């Protein structure tokens, strides 16, 4: 019998599936300024992360099956919407996963500045580093879930340590007036609607992924007990891991050029306490990108496996090794990440959020549908809301994504491109379902679940 994930391994995996530390928040400060960054990091978890975590806690403990949210939606809303849930998740994940090897190369530029050179030769070298990075993660995931969990737990400590040092050093270094201005509103930004869309997308992206921790529920020790506990602990760790480094960093600089992907935490740490802390921050950034990609690869590979077992994807994708790893799915998702890592992601973070929210909306509807259609279903954890209250809890986080979509098309820098990509993905999902459903009716490869 294969070993299952312990409580603290589960907490560590949740941390890296959802967060991985404050890396990536730099673009938030560059978009909306110091004051609004603090406000958004504190307020948005209540409107976005908490409702999602509550929904995940109820459904993952009631239906702790491989495939997670895909299983919930299929059971609550039927096979059509179950397929759309899986398809939309695959769409945003294919792009989202490529972010981490790109971030790895970006932070590697702190140690090797020539990596940032804008020429074809360096582009090939950067892509080559991404390929090596992805290949290493693939080999680790092929060894099994527990090894990935142990790796995440070790990296949680290593990644957190430089931020702890940054916070401690902030008491003795830096400019208290800069922090005071950030807290009192003097650093508020007059951001354009497009910049606000970017800022919202950055925060939502840094707090999204709670439903993704459900896809490996059958591989967790005592999921009915450990899921709610791990969700609570990991959410508190993530909020603190964002807020304290921001406050410490504002004592060093509030200049938008420093709060960017090109500079970021290693540069901020160096300005606050010296080169030694910049080096530690850079190393931790590399470890964070590594652990994030491993955790993402673990959860997303379980989704096409579950869909293949239902007949919506080719039978070969359902193949699982002796260690329990979905071999074919891992290879496919790694290959997609390798392809997209050759590109600049930029505003595709907005696309991530929009695709993610489409799937999230189906999960909330499935929560309500299962409450109505299967009241007898055993729910070890139950969201303490009924009827209208449950609808309000579901609508609030989804409204934030609507704001991102609207703001991303407004003002200078706005564009309909992101929304257009999402609409194209929606249409493709409907067409693929109809095509595959007709094939299954005429000559089913696998018998779909009801």
- The DSSP helix count reads 16
Poorly predicted residue ranges:
445-450
Strand composition percent: under 5%
Helix content: over 70%
Helix and strand pattern: HHHHHHHHHHHHHHHH
Task: Report, as a whole number of angstroms, the end-to-end distance.
Answer: 28 Å
Count of DSSP strands: 0
| Largest sheet descriptor | none
Tell me which oligomeric state these chains represent: single chain
Output the structural class: mainly alpha
Mean pLDDT over all positions: 82
User: Which value, in Å, is the CA radius of gyration?
Assistant: 21 Å
Tell the overall outline: globular
Characterise this structure:
The protein is mainly alpha-helical and 450 residues long. The protein contains 16 helices and no strands. α3 packs across α14. The protein is globular. The model is unreliable at 445-450 (pLDDT under 50).
